[in-house]
Automatic annotation (TrEMBL):
Active site, renumbered: E396 (proton donor/acceptor)
Annotated signal peptide: 1-29
Group of enzyme by EC: hydrolase
Claim: Protease is one of the keywords in the record: yes
Protein name per UniProt: Zinc carboxypeptidase
GO molecular function, one term: metallocarboxypeptidase activity
Reactions it catalyzes: Releases a C-terminal residue, which may be hydrophobic or positively charged
Organism for this UniProt entry: Streptomyces alkaliphilus
InterPro entries: CARBOXYPEPT_ZN_1 (IPR057246), CARBOXYPEPT_ZN_2 (IPR057247), Carboxypeptidase_T (IPR033810), Peptidase_M14 (IPR000834)
Any one Gene Ontology cellular component term annotated for this protein: extracellular space
SMART domains listed in its UniProt record: Zn_pept
Length: 447
């Protein structure tokens, strides 16, 4: 279990945390799961594997591979890493793809550290904050810093779990007329490091206020929104059985199919299903759903973002959606290989690229347009920008490769890898009042 953040709490906050955790765990234990009790262990057959596919080197080749109903997890110069079950792997091999399973990325297996040596203990679910623990931690922080944090339920998941957003500022109880910046996390169930990122940001901005000049300035001049988990059902399913299940989607049943779940990040209502960047197969990890915004979690986020249009103007100016893994900073568009397209002119592309590269220089990630990896459609970044005009980025966090732990790196890296993004977050916040200033054209900012 990760303890450093909780170790900073006061005795009173710790008591609040313990009580909230006990209540949340009790409620969670009674929640029904479509595939059995939450505590039931997944069999080996239910957990898909991780494979390296060699000989795939271009964005076009990667897009073709992704169209075969598999999710691409990481990209190298001449290969990609995918998640696939045995049937999918067999089918890809029959089509001529060269697949090699990566045992180090399978839950329960050894991972390699940054120097190439094996970790003696592999990642386990208890090394990451569970959904119940996350809820209790958020409640404790809000109780401890009531003037700096305001928690609200913005909707519910398919299984009825609260999806919360926390507003942070120097007067968080009041909706002020300031540039707003949104940080969203845990859209994909197995990406637990992103929830740790949310808790890190909350703690960092609360404890840094009045002590760190940059944090204090941002809390005085911005409203910061944090959604710690957009996919609570998927997180619980992937983590709470005691064995990671390598699960990506939400937990919504699909009519006419035994397959469960929609890929929330292919379900947004901008170029939904337009361009071969998602799947129509409910069994696929990139299943886009029967219609745009068919997933309740997608609607929760889009309705919240739309609710921030006040007086005809979108208050949220900038956004990061945190994912794992690959160590990338990505920006729109994902549906086309072109740098510019209707709704994204050259100046706007230059802003995305300039700020994206500044952030990447601070954390060591690789900056690029989303479609440089492969084509996606119905994604959050494309919707945020194309529909709402919000400067939206995706961060693919640590590790860089599957052999370093993939979606499940050891809990020992949590503090280091969340703090690694502190400067990047501040860079976005400091640009959020006028993103065009980054390219020397502040006159393009609206007043």
């Amino acid at each position: 279990m990760r303890t450093p953040l909780r170790g900073r709490f006061t005795a009173t906050a710790a008591a609040v945390l313990s009580l909230a955790l006990a209540l949340t765990l009790g409620a969670q234990a009674g929640a029904a799961s479509p595939n059995g009790a939450n505590g039931a262990r997944a069999s080996a057959e239910e957990i898909p594997g991780t494979y390296e596919v060699r000989g795939v080197s271009s964005a076009a080749q990667r897009s073709v591979l992704a169209a075969h109903d598999v999710s691409i997890d990481a990209v190298d110069d001449h290969s990609v890493t995918i998640t696939a079950d045995k049937a999918q792997a067999k089918r890809l091999r029959s089509m001529g793809y060269l697949l090699e399973e990566i045992p180090g990325a399978v839950p329960g297996a050894l991972a390699r550290d940054d120097s190439g040596g094996d970790f003696s203990v592999a990642s386990t679910p208890s090394q990451y904050t569970s959904h119940a623990q996350m809820t209790a931690t958020v409640n404790s922080l809000v109780s401890q810093y009531p003037n700096l944090m305001h928690r609200q339920v913005i909707g519910r998941s398919h299984q009825g779990r609260d999806i919360i957003a926390v507003r942070m500022s120097n007067n968080a109880r009041v909706d002020q007329n300031r540039p707003e910046v949104l940080f969203s996390h845990n859209m994909h169930a197995r990406e637990h490091l992103t929830t740790e990122m949310a808790l890190y940001l909350m703690n960092e901005f609360a404890t840094g206020y009045g002590r760190d000049s940059r944090i204090t300035n941002m809390m005085n001049t911005r409203e910061i929104w944090i959604i710690p988990s957009l996919n609570p059902d998927g997180k619980v399913w992937d983590q709470d059985s005691g064995t990671f299940r390598n699960w990506r989607k939400n937990r919504q049943p699909n009519s006419g199919s035994t397959a469960i779940g929609t890929d929330i990040n292919r379900n947004f209502a901008y170029r939904w299903g337009c361009c071969g960047g998602s799947s129509s197969n409910p069994a696929s990890d990139t299943y886009r759903g029967p219609s745009a915004e068919s997933a309740p979690e997608t609607r929760v986020l889009t309705n919240f973002v739309r609710s921030r249009v006040i007086g005809g103007r979108q208050q949220i100016t900038a956004h990061i959606d945190f994912h794992t893994y690959s160590e990338l900073v990505l920006w729109p568009f994902g549906y086309t290989y072109n740098d510019t397209a209707p709704g994204l002119n050259q100046d706007q592309h230059n802003v995305f690229s300039t700020v994206g590269r500044q952030m990447a220089a601070s954390n060591g990630y690789r900056p690029q347009q989303s479609s440089d990896l492969y084509i996606t459609d119905g994604s959050i970044n494309d919707w945020m920008w194309g529909d709402q005009g919000i400067w939206s980025y995706t961060f693919e966090m640590y590790p860089r490769t599957a052999s370093q732990g993939g979606f499940y790196p050891p809990g020992s890296v949590i503090d280091r890898e969340t703090a690694r993004n502190r400067e990047a977050v501040l860079i976005l916040l400091e640009n959020a009042d006028c993103m065009y200033r980054s390219i020397g054209k502040p006159q393009l900012c609206t007043t």
